[in-house]
Amino acid sequence: MSESQPATQGKAHRYPCPGCGADLAFSPKDGMLSCPYCGRTEAIPASVEEVRERSYEDYLRPRPDQLSTLAADALEVKCTGCGATVTFTPPEVAGECSFCGNNLVAQPKAADPLVAPEAVLPFQITDREAQGSVTRWLSSRWFAPNALKKLAYREAVGGIYLPFWTYDTHTTTHYSGQRGEHYYVTESYYETDAQGRQVEKTRQVRKTRWYPASGTVARWFDDVLVPATESVSRPRLASLEPWDLALLKPYEPAYLSGYKAQRYQVELARGFEEAKGLMSGVIEGDIRNDIGGDEQQITDLATSYSAIAFKHILLPVYLGAYRFNNKIYQVMINARTGEVQGDRPYSVWKITLFILLIVLVVGIIVFLTQDQQ
Fold first, then answer.
1. Please, are residues 252 and 33 in contact by the beta-carbon 8 Å criterion?
2. Residue 170 contacts by C-beta under 8 Å, 6 or more apart in sequence?
3. Nearest of 6, 34, 30 to residue 18 by alpha carbon
4. 70-101 confidence digits (pLDDT tens)
5. DSSP label of 61
6. Greatest CA span in the chain, whole angstroms?
7. Which end of the chain has fewer CB atoms < 10 Å from its terminal CB, N or C?
8. Cβ pair 91, 21 in contact under 8 A
9. Among candidates 292, 299, 291, which has minimal Cα distance to 177?
10. For residues 16 and 211, which has the higher predicted lDDT (pLDDT)?
11. pTM to 2 decimals?
C-alpha cells in the first residue's frame, strides 16, 4: 500500500499510425495498438508507473488536483433512456447505449474530472470471439423472442469498460456469543410390535450445552471488489467472476482506444459500505472458528476498520441490450474469458405454437392408429 499520489491530468491518447496516419486502436488479439486500415501494429508505450492503492481518507472529499479525466480530450455523453454516462475518445463515436440499446442522441461534451482509474484489465478476446460466444449462448435458448436474435449480429454487442472499486483494510472485531457443545443421553420410548404389544426401546438423543464466549478476531482484506455501476444486473455481473486481477495494468488511455468506458455511479464511500457487507460474512466465519465447539451463536459484534486503501479500476465486458414488451434485457460477456451471462424472456407465441404442434402431431398419430384398426 502506498501513500496517496496526486492524480495526473488527462494523458494524450491519439496514436497515429506511422504507416498511413490513421488512428490506432487497441487489439485484444495481441495486446498492441493496431491500424484498422493498413494492419500495422505498435506496442503500447511502457508505463513507468505501478498499480498502487490510494488513501481512502484522502479521497473521501477529493481536491481538484486529485481528479482527472480518462484522456486529455475524452468526451462523455449521458443516455436519456437509462441515465448511464459513457466516456469515449475520438475517433470513437457515441453510437448506441450499451446498457439499454437506445441511440445516444445527446451532444457529447468534454468529460468531467473524476477519481481517475489506477488500473485497467485490458480486453483479451476479440469482438468476433465474443460474438461467437453469444451465438452459442443463443443456440441453447429455446423459445427466445425474435428481439433477442438481434444480438446474433456482430455490431449489436460492443466492448465497454465497467468501473469497479477495490478496497484494502485491516479489521478488528470484538464479539460476544455462546459456544455450544453436543452431548448424548439415552432415552426410552415404546413401539408396537407385530403382535400388537408395547415394546420398550432406547435411543441416543443429542443435546447441547451452551457456554458464554467472547473475544477478538482480526483480518487483513486485500482487493475486495465492488462494482461501481448500477446499469447492469449485479447478480449477472457477479457470475462473470473471477477476474484475473493479478494481471491489472497501470491505466493508459491506449487501452481505451476503440472502446467506451462507463463513469462510476457508486461513489467511493458508498462502495466501501458495500465492501463491508462482503467482508462481514468472512468476519462471521472467523468468529465462529474462534468460538469453537459444535455450534456457535453470535449475539453482538463491533468491527473497526483501519489502513483503508482503494483503487478505481476498469474491467472489460462486451455488452448488448434489447427491448421486449417494454422491458430491457442485457447480455454480458467477460472479455477475458468469454463467459456469457444474460437475461432472456420467453416468447409466448412460440411456446403456444410449439404446444399446438405437439397436439397436432399427437392427433395425427391417434387418427392413423384408429384408422388402421
1. no
2. 218, 219, 220, 221, 305, 306, 307
3. 34
4. 888 889 999 988 899 999 888 788 788 889 88
5. S
6. 101
7. C
8. no
9. 299
10. 211
11. 0.81
Beta strands 295-324 and 198-227, pairing class: unpaired
- Within 213-326, where are the H helices? 234-239, 268-291
Report whether 139 contacts 98 (CB < 8 A): no
Residue type, 340: V
Q: How far apart are CA 304 and CA 113, in angstroms?
A: 32
> Can you list the positions of beta strands (E) in the chain?
25-27, 32-34, 41-42, 54-55, 75-78, 85-88, 109-110, 119-120, 158-192, 198-227, 249-250, 260-262, 295-324, 327-334, 340-342
CA dihedral 363, 365, 366, 372 (to 10 degrees): 140
- The neighbour count for residue 237, using CB atoms within 10 Å, is 20
What is the arithmetic mean of pLDDT over 158-167?
95
Phi, psi of 324 (to 5 degrees): -150, 120
Based on its alpha-carbon atoms, the radius of gyration of the chain, rounded to whole angstroms, reads: 29
Closest C-alpha among 356, 249, 255, 261 to residue 317: 261
